[in-house]
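The records we work with from here on pair a chain with its fold. Taken together, the tokens spell out the fold as the letters spell out the chain. The record below shows the convention in full.
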Amino acid sequence: MKIKDLTDQELLSRLIKSRSGNTYWKIVSVLRSRPSDFVFSKCIELIDSEIIKEKIAGIDVLAQLGVKERPFYKETIEIFFDLIKKEKDSKLLSSILIAISHNNDKLNQKQIEIILSFKSHRSSNVRYGVVLSLLGLNNSKAIDALIVLSNDKKESVRDWATFGLGTQIDTDNDFIRNALWDRINDNNQNTKLEAIVGLAKRNDFRIKEIIKRELIDGEFGTLLFEAIEVLNAKEFIPLLKINLEKGRIDNGIDSEWLIDLEELINNLDKK
């Protein structure tokens, strides 16, 4: 029997027994699409359990119960913030913060302050959860935290914090620009490209030299195309065409990357 054909009770029973990551998240996805009072109450029961795995399962379902509609939004937020104030386990804290990240569009200042209290947590998973929960918030303290976390020793934390500063907010000031400039030589390629896009969005034309460096180097992803298009930088068309020709004779190049590169060149030509 397919997972989607199971009853809510059967899904919940399988959820807490599941050891496979793929199966677990398939069950979570189906349960999230069934925002009934029964599923909600069962999530609460799981969260009230003394077993960490069961608590996390309840949190994971409740995080997006109802998918876009979220009929239990108010109760869900209250549960998460009540829980985060008393729990100490790093896995559990990370799960709560990630769950909050799916419900952060109406957070008040007190709730943001609670999230910020974990920004220096010893666990990188918790710091990662903090970053996700702050994404898209046009709040000065949240932005300050992302600036700090964009320099975190953990790659995933730096990457998402840089993404949050670069493209998830429109706020522009010297502190944000300096944080993004600090990442343009990051060892993590994606973090570096997120910083480039963020600076391009802010029309910081100094970034053109960095883009030129990346094009000459030839090792770049589609995020660079976004930066070039935002800047409407037609002067890069010759370098882009060189990379296109090289890519066409390289069997190891992703065909989708080539399509995106060709589309960028055409768009710039039209402009």
Observations:
- The mean pLDDT is 96.
